[in-house]
Amino acid sequence: MGLASYITERRQHRDILVMAHVVCGYPSFHQNMQALEVMAAAGVDLVELQFPFSEPSADGPLFVKANEESLKSGTTIDQCFDFMRAASERFSFKVMMMGYYNTVFKMGEAKFVARLADAGGVAFILPDLPLEESTDLHRLAAVAGVEPIILMTPTSSDARLAVLGAASRGMVYVVARKGVTGSQTAMGDDVLALVGRCRQYTRVPMGVGFGIASRADLDALRGSADVAIVGTAALKVWQAEGAEGLRGFFNALMA
Length: 255
What we know:
It is built from eleven helices and nine strands. The chain is of the alpha/beta class and 255 residues long.
């Protein structure tokens, strides 16, 4: 089942889905698996597995540090793919790769796509890869049944949104505000208007991220977005309170 079909099917029973995020190898793969167990028990629908990179340009300070610490501990790309395979075989939620194009470039696009599909990944997010430079990668991904997640942002013109929408498959990632991940975002009229603008240019499901931290944020997006993307808020809770705190966070978020 393709990503768009998976989201559409689950949306028949829930008014908004949740996508979560872990940085592979931070604090450890064992703790990553503990976090995924919590997410699965809470009913999370999708999870981004971030492959650590030394210059994560779209990430805020918390995730930058997590990437650095993961790399310092010796995390490798092979370990990330192995972990993705273990997660995709163990849990019912869908997993995708989030990372940066250097990882793909060093491996080679064809090999990357093949390994991603083999590990059970359904999609990838590469925020530093311009659409105009992604033609070959997207072609390879289509053959392998893997979806590229395209980002739409508040600074995109209508003409640019039309181009992005025409190329989108699986799901669009709507960036709720300018800047990097990590800061709180008010899920108000501006964000809803942005989602509405983006919907004019594509029929694939809409995920909204950057700053979602509470049940109130999810409530604000109901009826507008298909997926709420939660990253920094969950990592903060994990760092402060561990697995029990994370369980409480997701239970409250999705109650």
